[in-house]
Inverse folding.
């Protein structure tokens, strides 16, 4: 249950900004636009409340993207997109899910991608800029009428690469029949690589499927439950 909650939490206009904040946000987007091939380690930490003294869960993963291909591994999950097809493997539940969605790239998009940050943060009530130290600054957005109350980004002043983000929730969160008030999700990004190539083996759905024309798991995953979402979606009456 917590694993799926994390997936939901993680996978979430510039008009009116003070000019320096607007330029900083544009520079952040420019960094990711100039680095379309990117891989990084990510750590998700869910805190009980804003004091961040009580950790409910902490999970780590690795994300890679090159062109329209992407790969994520973490929480006993693997997600891969070759630009046309997507595969998700849950090694804990032993389930392999195949799909050919209309826009697979968008479905696999992570937060740190060109244009995503300002799109997610559109419609703010308030925005604040803060110098943390000589190398780091942060921008905090206060959002109205959403389950997320604030989003804070920390970034390197020189490169404008985001190093950490924090989401504070407006409503209590229920996890396995226990309710937590104003939980906080903090995400850190490290071990950045910009040299990953589109032919990286991690982007190959053939690692999991015998073929995409008549999808079936390779022998390594033959014992996994296989779900073909494309067939289910294309079935009459779906």
């Amino acid at each position: 249950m917590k694993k799926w909650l994390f997936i939901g939490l993680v996978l979430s206009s510039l008009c009116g900004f003070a000019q320096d904040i607007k330029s900083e946000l544009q520079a952040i987007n420019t960094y990711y636009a100039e680095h379309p091939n990117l891989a990084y380690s990510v750590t998700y930490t869910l805190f009980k409340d804003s004091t961040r003294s009580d950790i409910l869960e902490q999970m780590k993963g690795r994300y890679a993207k090159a062109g329209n291909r992407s790969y994520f591994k973490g929480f006993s999950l693997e997600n891969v997109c070759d630009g046309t097809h997507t595969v998700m493997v849950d090694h804990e539940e032993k389930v392999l899910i195949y799909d050919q969605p209309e826009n697979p790239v968008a479905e696999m998009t992570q937060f740190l991608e060109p244009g995503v940050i300002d799109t997610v943060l559109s419609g703010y009530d308030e925005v604040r800029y803060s110098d943390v130290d000589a190398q780091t600054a942060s921008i905090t957005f206060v959002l109205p009428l959403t389950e997320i109350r604030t989003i804070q980004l920390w970034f390197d002043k020189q490169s404008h690469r985001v190093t950490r983000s924090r989401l504070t929730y407006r409503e209590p969160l229920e996890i396995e029949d226990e309710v937590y008030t104003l939980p906080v999700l903090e995400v850190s990004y490290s071990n950045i690589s910009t040299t990953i190539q589109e032919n990286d083996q991690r982007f190959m759905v053939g690692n999991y499927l015998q073929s995409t024309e008549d999808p079936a798991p390779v022998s390594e995953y033959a014992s996994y439950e296989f779900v073909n979402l494309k067939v289910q979606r294309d079935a009459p009456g779906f």
In short: The longest helix spans residues 19-33.
